[in-house]
Amino acid sequence: VRLVESGGGLVQPGRSLRLSCIASGFTFSRYAMSWYRQAPGKERELVAYIINTGRSTNYADSVAGRFTISRDNAKNTVHLQMNDLKSEDTAVYYCNTYVWWGQGTQVTVSS
To answer: Averaged over 84-101, what is the pLDDT?
Structure first.
């Protein structure tokens, strides 16, 4: 199983980023997918969740209305569109399903 994140970087407050996670080694369309993040000195937290069909999603209160999770089962990919980024969104973002984790991608929001 592999989960490979991409799309992180340095961005100014108020701007947007789109993270992607490409999955392989399992039947992607059968699994719900999640994005987590971990800021320095803090515990890893769930950011967004999408069921296997993509028809239902859930978000942490801190990102609801700004972030959107989506998936493309034909491409084994899950995305996280992050708008109106804030300094407190700075963290390493991880793609997750079941017990499997990606290596993470750094998002830094700073002016």
So the answer is: 97
